[in-house]
Amino acid sequence: FIVQCTDAPDSAELRAPLRPAHKGYLDGLGRSVIARGPLQTDDGEATTGSAFLLDVAGRAAAETLLAEEPYTKAGGIYGHVTMERWFFGHV
Fold this sequence. Notes:
This protein is 34% helix and 32% strand. By secondary structure, the chain is α+β, with helices and mostly antiparallel strands. A hairpin with a 6-residue loop joins strand 2 (33-40) and strand 3. The protein is globular, with a radius of gyration of 13 Å.
């Protein structure tokens, strides 16, 4: 699954103190997280959200993983979230 989380307006102050917990949570997920990282403005000066590439059994597992993520649990950080199934393999 590809998950894109766009920050809510004025959420930067909420994000900063939770960053260590956010990183620790994702580190603990091992191979379930193929890639992850912040979304940024074109100049790289500001974070606008987060993106995750997940290798999990299904949508329910992806939703649970995201629900337990510290930024999600805190509320007020993500204004919009999209989640789409992604096929990992060769075409």
